[in-house]
Design goal:
alpha+beta, 18 strands, 30% helix, D_ala_D_ala, ATP-binding, magnesium, metal-binding, peptidoglycan synthesis
């Protein structure tokens, strides 16, 4: 008799401001998973936190315009993970119907971006439930999501990071003048961003002190902790993918470069995701061999510094004088076939379906708990 297929629960959506991007990512992954090997169950988390059994139809998981973003349908049948007799099953609840069990979950593929998903929260829940999952664990997810703490960890490991100041909502409302004075020591221009955000949501470029208050207020709309950071003027934006090998060691992709065109001063949400916008991507980046090698080494070191597992995308600034600074590490990077992480790996010889399969295989090999 043939072995039963492993059941993969693809979880997407979530409560963060990156809900729509998570849906787009899920649409691509759902199409790429090998259905001859895996039984796939699409699970959406609505914006109010409700878990539902989604259709997984890729047509409903696309960005069609600035006001046409995909969203999980919270009115669908609710679903939960139930731990019973050493296994964890998916249980579906339909209104006015008794609960039904879909069976045991072998691996969860959490395609969640931002807080309440990429930050260690769902990873902790899955650890408690004893379910294997794709990607970084609790600590690595939490540290990498919080850019302020990420900088502390990377700097302690000897990695170069951009100078910044953390501003909490409490500090700002208690004494904005003191915060403004503290920030002014960084010089202008600056970038202000939510410390635990992503997809360039809530980010502002500040050219002078008169723009600072509005930028901090905007960042605080998304996160009570904001990061004010020196602008990397004149630097190239280079990214490098990291993928864990089956023996646990980090492998790195060829680096790639993002070049912003048109009226965009930086890589904002529109430049990243809206179809009518244009951003030029060089995959691989045009770099001297020694620079590319250094970037790949730094990417692997950053991956290990935060204790990452599975995958990550490490973003860098490369300055005209040759200096390299780690901008951030993303433990669940954008994952459509057009996103940088899969494109870098495709250029390195690993296509999109094979990349998805590698991540599932890694998760199946890894136990939950302390490791």
């Amino acid at each position: 008799m043939s072995q039963p297929k492993k059941r993969i629960a693809v979880v997407f959506g979530g409560r963060s401001s990156e809900h729509a991007i998570s849906c787009v990512t899920a649409g691509s992954v759902l199409q790429a998973i090998d259905r001859t090997k895996y039984d796939v169950v699409p699970i959406g988390i609505a914006t109010d936190g409700r878990w539902v059994l989604e259709s997984g139809d890729p047509e409903t998981l696309q960005i069609l315009g600035p006001d046409k973003l995909p969203e999980v349908d919270g009115a669908r049948a609710s679903v939960m993970l139930a731990r019973e007799s050493g296994t964890t099953d998916l249980v579906v609840h339909e209104p006015s119907q008794p609960p039904t069990t879909l069976g045991e979950v072998d691996v969860v593929f959490p395609l969640l971006h931002g807080p309440w998903g990429e930050d260690g929260t769902i990873q902790g829940m899955l650890e408690m439930a004893g379910v294997r999952y794709v990607g970084a664990g609790v600590l690595a997810s939490a540290v990498s999501m919080d850019k302020a703490y990420m900088k502390v960890v990377l700097a302690a490991a000897g990695l170069p990071v951009m100078t910044s100041v953390t501003v909490t909502a409490r500090e700002w409302y208690r004494d904005p003048d003191r915060v403004t004075h503290r920030v002014s020591d960084l010089g202008y221009p600056l970038f202000v961003k939510p410390a635990r955000g992503g997809s360039s949501i809530g980010i502002s470029k500040v050219h002078h002190a008169g723009e600072l208050a509005d930028a901090i207020e905007e960042a605080h709309r998304h996160d009570p902790k904001a990061l004010v950071e020196v602008a990397a003027e004149g630097a190239r934006e280079i990214e490098c993918g990291v993928l864990q090998a089956l023996d646990g060691s980090p492998e790195t992709s060829l680096p790639a470069e993002i070049r912003i065109t048109g009226d965009h001063e930086f890589y904002d949400f529109a430049a990243k995701y809206l179809p009518e916008e244009h951003t030029e991507l060089d995959v691989p980046a045009h770099l001297a061999d020694d620079v590319a090698a250094e970037l790949r080494d730094l990417a692997a070191r950053a991956f290990e510094a935060v204790g990452c597992e599975g995958l990550a995308r490490v973003d860098f600034f490369v300055f005209p004088g040759g200096g390299i600074v780690v901008n951030e590490i993303n433990t669940m990077p954008g994952f459509t076939p057009l996103s940088m992480f899969p494109r870098m790996w495709a250029a390195s010889g690993l296509d999109y379906p094979a990349l998805v399969d590698r991540l599932i295989e890694l998760a199946l090999r890894r136990d939950t708990g302390l490791r």
